[in-house]
Amino acid sequence: MSILNRSRINLITILLAGMLVFPSKGRSQNVTVTGQIFEYVTYYMSNFDVQSGSSDIQLFRYLIQSDSYPVYAQVWFKASMVSPALGVITPTTIVELESNVMQLLADLTLDNRYFTVTSDYLYDQASPPNAIPLDVTPIQLLDPQEFDAMMSSIMTTGQLADGEYTFEIKIYAGADESGLALIEHDSRNIVVQTPTAITLESPGGNVEDTTQTVVYTTYPFFNWSSQGCGGCETYIRVAQYDPSEHASIDEAIEDETSLPASQTEGWENIGSFASYQYPVTGARPLEFGKLYVWQVKKSLNTTGGMEELISNINVFKVADPAGGTAATQATYHPVLEGLRQALGEDQFNGLFSSGSPLDGYTVQGTYTIDDQSVDESSITYLLNQVINQNITVINVDIED
């Protein structure tokens, strides 16, 4: 095998076989497969050795077990991709590999750090461990031109190109080498995306003109845009901005926060939301007539460790609607304001505007979800789920 072909096999295998998802449970009577993949937002090439096929971070780990030994096993997998960034717009095979038939004398743990195309043996969990000969044969590899494009992208960005990667696996097992049967066939898609900047949308804007960044509620909705990413955590913080005390908005956001109320946290974890209503509990009440700053960050799990993506800072003023400067829908109770955002203007107005079935309605009494009493913060959390399209409103019923 030429050095070039070996490099192609090594590179493709550590990038793609390393991210392979193995099934949670085999369907054989005597063999089970359990394990997991450690998925990352970004895959940096600095964590991989292209020549040896090894890596210093864990991508997968799984366990093959049988209720009696010996047992024979073989693994086949195929990886394909669609990556407009590389000019690949139709599903294209990256690599198709097949292992030798392995005789297992005890439970076997597979870890990507020790399972490479240059590995000659695996070691089971017996005491002392048995050496299991390993030989991986390439059946099909990425076209050389597309491989060169992938290499060029990796050399330029230092990471795996954006795209949708599909992994398919077949596991065969049997009591003898010639009687292997398919016990599991599984596949999964992984979307690799380079995180983009977080852009704050509302409320607020630049500090130079706060007359254009006014809100008329102490429970404003915060909206921003950013490319989604699996496994990311989103955080928000809000703080008062007093020009007589703070030299800049950067100084204000680093001062005491209104959200979160606890000064030991610094940021409020809000999961994967892309908008968020100022909460009823867990935050200091906002006050009319005062300026506030807010900021959002994402915590990203990459093969190089945890990284943070932080937005710019927006400034807004909370104006008193009773001052006569504006009559606005934002003066609604926070739960009604959440309903307005969740239902949309047309549907909300059809229910709550003048002459509508709920004209003059005020929020009072107790809240229930599935006949269980909950507090107001649970209601606003549920509304945030609707607003962020994590759940969908099917219909709305009005009860007397």
Description of the molecule:
With 400 residues, the protein is of the alpha+beta class. It is built from six helices and 25 strands. The strands form seven sheets. Strands 15, 17, 18, 19, 21, 22 and 23 form a seven-stranded mixed sheet that branches. Strands 5, 6, 7, 11, 12 and 13 form a six-stranded antiparallel sheet that branches. Strands 1-4-8 form a three-stranded antiparallel sheet, with no helix packed on it. Helix 4 packs across helix 5 and helix 4 packs parallel to helix 6.
Can you give keywords for this protein?
400 residues, alpha+beta, Immunoglobulin-like, 7-stranded mixed beta sheet, 6-stranded antiparallel beta sheet, 25 strands, 16% helix, 36% strand
How much β-strand is present in the residues? Answer: 35-45%
Poorly predicted runs of 5 or more residues: 17-28, 324-330
Sheet having the most strands = 7 strands, mixed
Radius of gyration: 28 Å
The mean pLDDT is 76
Shape assignment: elongated
Helix/strand class: alpha+beta
Helix content: 10-25%
Number of domains: 3
What is the tally of beta strands?
Answer: 25
The number of helices is: 6
Distance between the termini: 78 Å
Question: Which helices and strands, and how do they pair?
Answer:
Blueprint: H1 3-16, E1 31-37, E2 48-49, E3 54-55, E4 60-66, E5 71-83, E6 88-99, E7 102-104, E8 108-111, E9 121-123, E10 131-133, E11 136-141, H2 144-157, E12 163-174, E13 181-192, E14 199-202, E15 214-215, E16 221-225, E17 233-241, H3 249-253, E18 257-259, E19 268-269, E20 275-277, E21 291-302, E22 305-310, E23 314-318, H4 334-343, H5 345-352, E24 367-369, E25 372-374, H6 376-387
Parallel strand pairs: 15-23
Antiparallel strand pairs: 1-4, 2-3, 4-8, 5-6, 5-7, 5-12, 6-11, 9-10, 12-13, 14-16, 16-20, 17-18, 17-19, 17-21, 21-22, 21-23, 24-25
Helix pairs in contact: 4-5, 4-6
